[in-house]
TrEMBL record:
Keyword Transferase: yes
Organism: Pediococcus pentosaceus (strain ATCC 25745 / CCUG 21536 / LMG 10740 / 183-1w)
Similarity comment text for this entry: Belongs to the FGGY kinase family.
Name used for this protein in its record: L-ribulokinase (Putative)
CDD domains tied to this protein: ASKHA_NBD_FGGY_BaXK-like
SUPFAM superfamilies given in the database record: Actin-like ATPase domain (SSF53067)
Annotated ranges, domain Carbohydrate kinase FGGY C-terminal: 277-475
GO molecular function: kinase activity
Length: 531
């Protein structure tokens, strides 16, 4: 579309908005009917570790959403000379899992407990045994049951529990609902019904230490909707929460709120069976849409759902790019001391290109990028740790390549379970995330790590909020199509992408690195105990 056509779409309100609350950034993306981004806004935030809990304040949630929206609306006005007053459809997505519990008076009972907390080991294990279905520590039901096991005072007052996306959607629309993808990280979903498993709900309700409470788990959990269904409308109160200037009108169709895993699948067109995608950021996860159920229950493999309710094998790791970002900031600070101000993309490009000059054995450097604990390697407390021997070849190329290798190491360990024990393989995986903004380098490392071709699309750095904007448009205009057909026919008819295949030397080098990495894990575990 040209500028005049886009201006007309804005004037007519024929635009869709996706807002995603990621772990380090809240972003708003506005798209037109041709699925092109015309404006965006963002807000940087960080989780806080308070009273041994990783959390975000709800005040900051709204500060970030309003700042992102305001920035996006200002871009609309400056580029297209139109005020944003009407939006056809809106979708909210956020980090999956976690625990937000509210009373009948809609008061938050305890601070938001994010996916990053490794504090539900007992409840996750007991529920996994009771359900014969893997319940990871991150899941909402694990947090709820752990609070019960802990004897926490607030549990008796619970009226409603939800995820971060579900909370924001509720405040904007008045609807206590989740998209099926996000809901599948709350409680197990029955593929046949597209709703929480009734047999597992019954099992949970009949647990001795659950019976004591007056509330009913069936009423406490949010309702579930599939992609393409309408999940309410933007209320007047919700419009004022989004747009503090008061210009935005109520009435926008609200899409079912989704988790970042679901928007990642949409943003990479990976919702059909036998497709897969990988999303990397503060955490990382891979998703493989399953043709058949897994043979066994694996404590390191989640079974979740696509936004339209197909089962997915998910490998989720708590740590990925945080340590790289921390080191990049050190280099940025040093450059600034020399009077050199480097834009982030230029800084990462320079560092990543150095990594391509690394020795095959990385100089025998080892790094553990564990900002928090890591379930998949059984590390309870995160202590970012860089280790080298006295005779290691310690230089910048080896250091940076070690950072990249270590960022993907937990993901590789989890993916090996799927390929080796379940014989699940995909022809190619589509990857997205900020690490791929520098072309080729991180993409090739990931391909070598997993020993499969990796495709990166042109929207690799911005897939999540854009994917949610697409889901919002689908909710208002699906025309009876399935989500997979809608994406193939309308959204990805001519995708821009690049695919890299694993290089034999790189695969062998990464396998050798992994052996050293696994052998050194006791050092990382010990660091968490003594530091």
């Amino acid at each position: 579309m040209n500028l005049v056509e886009i201006s007309k779409e804005i004037e007519n309100g024929n635009v869709s908005l996706g807002i995603e609350l990621g772990s380090t950034r809240i972003k708003a993306v506005l798209i037109t009917s041709d699925y092109k981004t015309i404006a965006s806004g963002s807000f940087v935030w960080e989780n806080q570790f308070k009273d041994q809990i990783w959390t975000y304040s709800l005040d900051t949630v709204w500060q970030g959403i309003q700042a992102s929206y305001s920035q996006m609306a200002a871009e609309v006005h400056s580029k297209y000379h139109q005020s944003l007053t009407s939006i056809k459809s809106i979708g909210i997505s956020a980090m999956m899992h976690g625990y937000l519990a509210f009373s009948k008076n809609n008061d938050l009972l305890v601070p938001f407990r994010t996916w990053r907390n490794n504090i539900t080991e007992e409840s996750a294990a007991k529920l996994t045994e009771a359900f014969s279905f893997n319940i990871p520590q991150r899941w909402t039901i694990a947090h709820l049951y752990q609070a019960i096991l802990n004897g926490e005072e607030h549990v008796k007052d619970i009226d409603f529990v939800t995820t971060l996306a579900g909370y924001v959607h509720w405040k904007l629309s008045g609807e206590k609902v989740l998209g099926v993808g996000d809901a599948s990280g709350v409680f197990p979903i029955d593929e046949k019904t597209g709703y929480y498993s009734k047999s597992m709900l019954k099992t949970f309700a009949e647990l001795e230490n659950v019976k004591q409470f007056d509330w009913d788990i069936n009423q406490v959990l949010p309702d579930v909707k599939s992609a393409g269904e309408k999940a309410g409308e933007l209320t007047a109160e919700g419009a004022n929460l989004l747009d503090v200037t008061g210009k935005l009108q109520a009435g926008s169709v609200m899409a079912p709120p989704e988790g970042d895993a679901g928007t990642g699948m949409v943003g990479t067109n990976s919702v059909r069976k036998r497709t897969g995608n990988i999303s990397v950021g503060t955490s990382a996860f891979s998703m493989v849409v399953l043709e058949k159920p897994l043979k066994s229950v694996h404590r390191d493999i989640d079974v979740v759902m696509t936004p339209d309710g197909a089962p997915v094998a998910m490998v989720h790791v708590n740590n990925c790019s945080s340590d790289i970002n921390a080191w990049a900031q050190i280099f940025s600070d040093f450059a600034a001391r020399l009077g050199i101000n480097l834009a982030p993309d230029k800084l990462y490009e320079a560092l990543f290109l150095e990594a391509t000059k690394a020795d095959r054995d990385l100089g025998h450097l080892i790094n553990y990028s564990y900002q928090s604990g890591e379930n998949i390697t059984n590390i309870k407390a995160g202590r970012p740790l860089f280790v080298r021997k006295s005779d290691s070849n310690f230089n910048l190329p080896n250091f940076m390549q070690t950072q990249l290798y270590s960022a993907f190491a937990p993901l590789k360990i989890g993916m090996d379970i799927l390929s080796n024990e379940e014989d699940i393989k995909t022809d190619v995986m589509i990857a997205q995330g900020g690490l791929f903004r520098t072309p080729v380098v991180a993409q090739q490392v990931l391909s070598d790590a997993l020993n499969i071709p990796i495709t990166v699309m042109a929207n690799a750095g911005e897939g999540g909020p854009w994917g949610m904007a697409v889901l919002a448009m689908f909710a208002s205009d699906s025309n009876g199509q399935s989500l997979s057909d809608y994406l193939d026919t309308n959204v990805f008819s001519n995708p821009e992408s690049m695919t890299l295949s694993p290089e034999p030397e790189g695969v062998e080098a990464y396998d050798e690195f992994t052996k050293e990495y696994v052998a050194g894990l006791p050092v990382e575990a010990q660091a968490g105990e003594v530091i």
